[in-house]
Amino acid sequence: MSKPKILYVDDEPLNLMLLKVNFSKQYEVLTAPDGPSGLEILKNNHDIRVVLSDMKMPYMSGIEFIRLASDISPQSSYFIVTGFDFNAEIQEAQQQGLIRKYFSKPFKLNEIDFEIQQSLQLN
């Protein structure tokens, strides 16, 4: 049985590596350094189940990326990871159902893993 695919989009290479190293046993982890690259990966991988995105990135914010990504892959579950405070834009995205949850940096791997497991059971 193949592992569920997840995509993590973040402009900080260390964060991409940390998530990939810690989650690659149970998931196939794809990474992208920015929104446009993340959208390209989604277009080529229709079986991505979970998408995590940094909030502050070059080219587009995490919310902008997720708005575009959800058009490409509406069946995926979306999460924001941010080093900044919870804000109105994140709250609105959560209320609209665009994102399931947001995680603060430095992220807690067990919290992220729990939420990924929850969302995989739902879809």
Automatic annotation (TrEMBL):
Residues where 4-aspartylphosphate is found: D54
Domain annotation Response regulatory: ranges: 5-120
Keywords in alphabetical order: Phosphoprotein
InterPro entries hit by this protein: Bact_response_regulator (IPR050595), CheY-like_superfamily (IPR011006), Sig_transdc_resp-reg_receiver (IPR001789)
Any single GO BP term: phosphorelay signal transduction system
Coiled coil stretches, renumbered: none
Highest taxon in the source lineage: Bacteria
Pfam families the UniProt entry points to: Response_reg
Database matches in SUPFAM superfamilies: CheY-like
UniProt cross-references to Gene3D superfamilies, sorted A to Z: 3.40.50.2300
Record carries keyword Phosphoprotein: yes
Name of protein: Response regulator
Organism expressing this protein natively: Maribellus luteus
